[in-house]
Write a structure and sequence with these properties.
The protein is an alpha/beta fold and about 575 residues long. It folds into 3 domains: about 260 residues, Rossmann fold; about 180 residues, Dimethylsulfoxide Reductase, domain 2 (3-Layer(aba) Sandwich), CATH 3.40.228.10; about 100 residues, Barwin-like endoglucanases. The chain has 19 helices and 30 strands. The termini are far apart. The chain binds ligand MGD (2 copies), iron/sulfur cluster and molybdenum atom. One ligand MGD binds next to helix 15 and strand 15.
Length: about 575
């Protein structure tokens, strides 16, 4: 049995894990993991897993479960087809082997994202490709500007790389991280586009732009400068809760420095999320930060860049954030909890309950397993072989079998059984693993994905002409009536809906409602009643409900982002009623 693997969770850090007498420990030899893990893996064993397959509430054998699944797929092929809805409960590359089976029998898969799709679309529009900025480059910066990413909570292994740097945090919440920063820009949620455009405008006004760099990589910057002039300074700053002094304070820190800008998902949970990323990228281009050591702008990088898929490609797709489940005879859910995590739970509940049959393939009980006709337990990451990459660094990590156990079935074994039943060709598990492994190359104590850059964009952008494509227009109107903003970030205790989920709504103590009082939050989509807790880190007009809190997505809408087909968890304003 091997004793070194990687954390399977959907996280920037992709830690290297040592399995020591059943205990999980952070790998001291891996420079990104640095010898520590986070609460999720430290308490991995606390979470009770599903042990037996279940058909219509009755425990059945794995054989019976697989035979029933085969019948459901067969029947669906004669009728309205199957939808394979797979998400990122486990981030391993082998998880996609089920796509191979379902695509091969004509099922629909999903496209778009619940996560970073809007921002990613913006990055690709501007730069041509979404390359990861390695932690070593961030460590080389003088100033790090963190924009809508809660590093100690969601990306804690980056903290050692930020030591001793000047820190600017842009976040509507005065998080502990924001509190520790040299500057905290506490703007209103969704105010980032205006803030980024105004920063760009003043970079040019102050002559801070890098003319030489722009001549080579950002020729159209003057047109963009004109676009930034359409933002009315006073009105925009008033709207987003900032002043001219905030622009000045930030620019003063950036002037002449090596700057890394790290952007998280917080800024792009809106319909115009792509525009926000393009406007933030534009700051990097104006300052000449791309392709320079110790500098850069980084969003969640593409974790699959450089990894060719060995699996069959689908021809039919449903939008991930707004899938029409009811159109299908069979919905096969894997590594996901759509009933809690997709936006617009009311719509999802209605649509999923009208699907012919729902199958849940996962580790834990949740809202979706509770309503599924067939529940199939998965193996944990310790009991099956995989390989993973990350969106926060370029490492490739092997995940060999570290423990044996009779519970559950691996994604490969399930796919192999289905492929055999339907006469679909499938390579051996070893061949797929070898394919993924071969995408890596050794680099000191770690393995990196081959072909990724130590300094991304050093050879220019990946657009047709190598130029950065500045935002040419924007579709954003900061409209704020008397309602509240909903902020829905990640919790330190849960990984989306896995592990310890939150159960409260948070508001500023000045809201006039006593702690512990149940409040009804109401949006155009629906409502939820949650006990109120006070949090003085919040702006007066914000309600915070963490991602993973049961009921939070009753409030969110199925509207997709203008680009990238992403969920827009913070696009809805809400009302608050004490009850
Ligand atoms: N502990 C923990 N870690 C996780 C996860 C988890 O559930 N729990 N989930 C993982 C996953 S799937 C992902 S995608 C990543 C995401 O991790 P992050 O990128 O950090 O995303 P969030 O926590 O959603 O939001 C980050 C910050 O954005 C702020 N924010 C909210 N709205 C706005 C806004 O309009 N503008 C600005 N500037 N900031 C805003 C929030 O207050 C929050 O502090 O984390 C991963 N890591
Ligand atoms: N309100 C609000 N909603 C959000 C967000 C938000 O910020 N706010 N964030 C969104 C984001 S960024 C994301 S990424 C999504 C995540 O949403 P989902 O992708 O639906 O993820 P989880 O809720 O983490 O559910 C993952 C499930 O995967 C299963 N699982 C774990 N490991 C394995 C395995 O090895 N094999 C199999 N077969 N199953 C496994 C577990 O049973 C677990 O219940 O949520 C989105 N929803
Ligand atoms: S920090 Fe992220 S990758 Fe590391 S153990 Fe925690 S969830 Fe896993
Ligand atoms: Mo995510």
């Amino acid at each position: 049995m091997q004793n070194k693997t990687a954390c399977p969770l959907d996280c920037y850090d992709a830690c290297s894990v040592v399995v020591d007498a059943g205990k999980l420990k952070g790998d001291k030899a891996h420079s990104y993991t640095n010898g520590y893990l986070c609460p999720h893996l430290n308490h991995f064993w606390k979470q009770e897993r599903i042990t037996q397959p279940r058909l219509k509430g009755e425990v059945v054998s794995m054989e019976t479960a697989l035979a029933h699944l085969e019948t459901l797929v067969r029947d669906a092929r004669e009728g309205n087809g199957s939808l394979h809805y797979r998400s990122s409960g486990n981030f391993g590359l082998m998880q996609g082997v089920t796509d191979h089976f379902f695509a091969s029998v004509g099922a629909a898969l999903t496209k778009g994202s619940l996560c970073d799709g809007a921002g990613e679309a913006g990055v690709v529009e501007g730069r041509g490709a979404n390359r990861v900025l390695p932690p070593e480059q961030i460590a080389g910066a003088d100033v790090v500007m963190v924009w809508g990413r809660n590093v100690p909570v969601t990306n804690s292994h980056l903290l050692p790389f930020l030591k001793g740097k000047e820190l600017i945090v842009v976040d509507p919440v005065r998080t502990a991280f924001a509190d520790s920063a040299d500057i905290h820009i506490q703007l209103k949620p969704g105010g980032d586009l205006y803030f980024a455009m105004l920063l760009a405008r003043f970079i040019v006004i102050e002559g801070m732009h890098d003319a030489e760099y722009l001549a080579e990589h950002g020729e159209a910057f003057e047109e963009y400068y004109e676009l930034t002039q359409t933002v009315r300074i006073k009105a925009a700053l008033d709207g987003i809760g900032l002043g001219l002094g905030d622009i000045g304070r930030v620019l003063e820190r950036l002037r002449g420095k090596k700057v890394a800008i790290l952007v998280g998902t917080g800024v792009q949970k809106y319909r115009h999320g792509d525009e926000v990323l393009r406007a933030i990228d534009a700051i990097g281009v104006l300052l000449g930060l791309f392709g320079k050591p110790g500098c850069g702008v980084s969003f969640l990088g593409s974790s699959s860049a450089g990894i060719a898929s060995p699996f069959a490609a689908a021809r039919r797709f449903e939008p991930k954030a707004a899938a029409a489940f009811s159109d299908y005879d069979l919905v096969f859910v894997q590594g996901a909890n759509p009933l809690a995590q997709m936006p617009d739970t009311g719509r999802v509940t209605d649509s999923l309950s009208k699907a012919g049959h729902v199958v849940y393939f996962g580790l834990y009980e949740n809202e979706t397993s509770a309503m599924a006709e067939l529940v199939i337990p998965a193996k944990t990451f310790l009991e099956k072989a995989d390989v993973r990459t990350a969106y926060g660094h370029n490492a490739l990590l092997e995940m060999p079998v570290c423990e044996s156990g009779a519970t559950g079935i691996s994604e490969y074994a399930l796919s192999a059984a289905l492929c055999a039943a339907f006469d679909v060709a499938i390579a051996s598990e070893a061949a797929y693993l070898e394919h993924f492994r071969s995408c890596g190359e050794e680099a000191g104590e770690k393995t990196l994905v081959r072909g990724r850059d130590a300094v991304p964009y050093a050879a220019g952008f990946d657009t047709d002409d190598g130029q950065f494509l500045f935002l040419e227009e924007y579709d954003f109107d900061f409209d704020m009536q008397e309602d509240y903003f909903l902020i829905s970030p990640k919790s330190p205790r849960s990984l989306n809906s896995q592990f310890e989920r939150e159960s409260q709504a948070f508001m500023h103590p000045g809201c006039g409602i006593e702690e512990g009082t149940p409040v009804r939050l109401v949006s155009a989509q629906g409502s939820v009643v949650l006990p109120l807790a006070h949090d003085e880190r919040l702006l007066a007009d914000c309600v915070l409900v963490y991602a993973g809190t049961p009921g939070v997505n009753n409030l969110t809408s199925s509207a997709l982002s203008y680009a990238g087909g992403n969920a827009c968890y913070q696009a809805n304003k809400i009302k608050v009623e004490a009850c």
